[in-house]
């Protein structure tokens, strides 16, 4: 099975290095903790291929 990658992690998950499920408007980690969930696009970064 090929693991699915989330295209972008929210700021909270990125800062805490947590696995973000990428659900919008609020991911499960932020929803569970009651934090605001913010997605900020990262420019100039190409996704690495899964191999």
Layout of helices and strands:
Blueprint: H1 11-16, H2 28-33
Write up what this structure looks like.
Residues 9-39 form the Zn(2)-C6 fungal-type domain. It comes from Scleroderma citrinum Foug A. There is one protein chain. This protein is mostly helical. The chain has one domain: CD2-Gal4 (Irregular). It contains 2 helices and no strands.
Low-confidence stretches: none
Q: Would you give the CATH topology? A: CD2-Gal4
- Domain count: the total is 1
Shape assignment: globular
Helix content: 10-25%
Number of strand segments: 0
Compute the separation of the termini in Å. 12 Å
In CATH terms, the superfamily is: Zn(2)-C6 fungal-type DNA-binding domain
Which structural class do you get from the secondary structure elements? Answer: mainly alpha
Averaged pLDDT, please? 84
Q: Radius of gyration from the CA trace?
A: 12 Å
- Proper CATH architecture: Irregular
Quick gist of this model?
The chain contains two helices and no strands.
List keywords for this structure.
51 residues; mainly alpha; 2 helices; 24% helix; Zn2Cys6_DnaBD; zinc ion binding; DNA-binding transcription factor activity, RNA polymerase II-specific
